[in-house]
Specification:
mainly alpha; 0% strand
Length: 120
């Protein structure tokens, strides 16, 4: 199956720690963006609300949307940094592929594009 070469890595180096920290920061910022979007997005228009003539907000809250953009772009930046460093740091086939960071990067960029198209 694999080669019979001994493992020469003794401990985690700076770059492996940088990858882990940037990945954790990216996921943390994405979680904060989820919380912000809950409060910034327009409210759902349920039938029971219309029946009782309860007004709902049909627009995005502008100040929170600015924070949402910042969180999403920072999340995409830290995930990109993690992908970039991982590409040059990990060269073995047995190294982790970090598909979760690729997915986070794509979802962050797609979410920004979705919000931009909804606000215009």
């Amino acid at each position: 199956m694999g080669s019979n070469k001994p493992e020469r890595r003794q401990s985690e180096d700076f770059w492996l720690k940088a990858i882990r920290i940037s990945t954790l920061l990216a996921w943390g910022l994405f979680t904060i963006a989820l919380i912000i979007s809950y409060y910034a997005a327009p409210e759902n228009d349920y039938g029971v609300l219309r029946y009782h003539n309860i007004s709902i907000r049909k627009f995005w809250l502008t100040p929170l949307t600015g924070y949402l953009y910042i969180m999403l772009w920072l999340s995409a930046l830290f995930s990109y940094i993690s992908i970039f460093v991982h590409k040059y740091r990990s060269r073995r086939k047995t190294d982790n592929k970090q598909f979760n960071v690729f997915l986070l990067f794509i979802v962050s960029i797609a979410w920004v594009a979705y919000i931009v198209t909804r606000l215009i």
